[in-house]
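Reviewer 2 asked us to include a model.

Predict the structure of this chain.
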Amino acid sequence: MSSTTEHPQEPLIVEVRAEAEHLHGLRDSLTAWLAEAGACEELADRIVLAMNEAATNAMTHAYRNRTAGTVRLTAKRESGRTVTVTIADNGRWKPARPTEGNGGRGVLMMQECVDRVRIDRTPDGTTVTLRSQLRVPTEDELAAAPETPRQHELDIGMMGEATVARLSGDVPVSAAVQLRRELLTATCGGVVPLIVDLAEVGSETEGLMDALSQVARAADGTGERVVVRTHSGRLLPELGTLRASVGDTVEIVPRNEPG
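Predicted model (structure tokens):
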């Protein structure tokens, strides 16, 4: 294994054979680099966990039925205090599927650990990019918001290769995080196409728009899209604002009749 770490501000570059025995070395190299870059222990642990998941996926899936190639880890400081970590292989991307049970949850785990995840797939390999700010939450941010009774329900199904989520009930701001996690879990972290059906959504939708915005950005990072079906004209202005903020990642499909 070879690595380059000259100065805390200089990039870290490590390239190893795509074999599980090298994961420990990758973790150690990134942990040491993050410490020199000024990351607190809690944040470093989360970034290393996300990297480890991406590297494990590459080693497990990218070279399936092929001779093992390499996994390349790069870490660098960008503008401000942003840390960018990439894990690249030259194998074949294996899409996750919600029907894989406990499998296919790697991207979701990465998204819970870092601020931004992007997956670029080409015939020559896959690159996973992880971004996080070198900061820790304030005490106010860590203070848990009071739990509120669940007001929405999700009926999850499949339509071909896409996940279909039929939403009913109200989604206030306090439910945005929960709904985001439910939708990302149902789509393996956004790597599966998503159709959200709002036929029976309630009158409180601020949390819904927040959750859809975050899910759309996660889907964009994996090269997928989110289709939103609505039977209510009152939601079109909000959905139009949502689409304006996330672009073509979201497709709005208005319907005059339920179903």
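The longest strand covers residues 125-133. The domain at 144-254 is CATH 3.30.750.24 (Transcription Regulator spoIIAA). We have added this to the supplementary material.
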